[in-house]
């Protein structure tokens, strides 16, 4: 368990945060400039905050009131930066072994072979960083951090410098770290898709303060606290792979309701997370017929939020979980949508992107 209490003056505002990061992946989520990197640097020991106290599994990393400061190299944090920061004159294998050199004697550590296999970097071992893609560099940087036998992984927007294809390449490896290695992780992001795929706990930062803390499903389904705005709001459903069909579709079972999406590589019986964006959901008061859309979720309206603009956010409770739909205020009025009303959520199969599907964690 990581416990954090920090106060620090930043340009334009003051950072004042308190939160706990339980085992798993805790994502610091928010727009750029809200203090996320300052928090993670303070935990790593790369920045001394004006005031604060941080503990990891009961050990005090620093406490300004007691003038206690554990040096960074004694905190045993594996830090993954936005860019790989590999040594250009060393091969991939040598970069990895450099991380292993920092592992304390007697500490429980992963073997080089295990890390290489986990990250799929065996073909890269004899290359130098100059011959690696951005995604390959980040995989090596993750491996180097793992081989230092860290007590925690700190990842500061590790995908922000990558294009969409490289992000899709790296995300499954972070999922494997979460599910197979079990080292707790503090992960900085402003991407709702990354939060949906990886987070077990989400800490939302806004203007230097914690706006909300909770599970990924709770945070992503609440547009009031979405740092990226209402267009990033959506449902996060947990489902089980039921079967793969010959026509290229995978059928999921979500709370007893079938959910179809483009074929994925998960085996039948696997648990998955599926993010459904609110702006991809259509609502109907009667069960629709004659539509091309395959996914129809029956539900009950929980509430309807409206603002000063033409849009409305409708929250539905369905057997699969909470679903959000972004519609116009005119449509909400025409359908007489209000708390308690029966409704159907319609989702096109092809609107569920591959990056919105991941392991359940």
From TrEMBL:
<dbReference type="InterPro" id="IPR008995">
    <property type="entry name" value="Mo/tungstate-bd_C_term_dom"/>
</dbReference>
<dbReference type="InterPro" id="IPR050334">
    <property type="entry name" value="Molybdenum_import_ModC"/>
</dbReference>
<keyword id="KW-0997">Cell inner membrane</keyword>
<keyword id="KW-0813">Transport</keyword>
<feature type="domain" description="ABC transporter">
    <location>
        <begin position="1"/>
        <end position="232"/>
    </location>
</feature>
<dbReference type="InterPro" id="IPR003439">
    <property type="entry name" value="ABC_transporter-like_ATP-bd"/>
</dbReference>
<dbReference type="GO" id="GO:0005524">
    <property type="term" value="F:ATP binding"/>
</dbReference>
<dbReference type="Pfam" id="PF03459">
    <property type="entry name" value="TOBE"/>
</dbReference>
<dbReference type="Pfam" id="PF00005">
    <property type="entry name" value="ABC_tran"/>
</dbReference>
<keyword id="KW-0472">Membrane</keyword>
<dbReference type="InterPro" id="IPR017871">
    <property type="entry name" value="ABC_transporter-like_CS"/>
</dbReference>
<dbReference type="InterPro" id="IPR004606">
    <property type="entry name" value="Mop_domain"/>
</dbReference>
<dbReference type="InterPro" id="IPR027417">
    <property type="entry name" value="P-loop_NTPase"/>
</dbReference>
<keyword id="KW-0500">Molybdenum</keyword>
<feature type="domain" description="Mop">
    <location>
        <begin position="290"/>
        <end position="356"/>
    </location>
</feature>
<dbReference type="InterPro" id="IPR003593">
    <property type="entry name" value="AAA+_ATPase"/>
</dbReference>
<protein>
    <submittedName>
        <fullName>Molybdenum ABC transporter ATP-binding protein</fullName>
    </submittedName>
</protein>
<dbReference type="InterPro" id="IPR005116">
    <property type="entry name" value="Transp-assoc_OB_typ1"/>
</dbReference>
<dbReference type="InterPro" id="IPR011868">
    <property type="entry name" value="ModC_ABC_ATP-bd"/>
</dbReference>
<keyword id="KW-1003">Cell membrane</keyword>
<keyword id="KW-0067">ATP-binding</keyword>
<keyword id="KW-0547">Nucleotide-binding</keyword>
<keyword id="KW-1278">Translocase</keyword>
<keyword id="KW-0614">Plasmid</keyword>
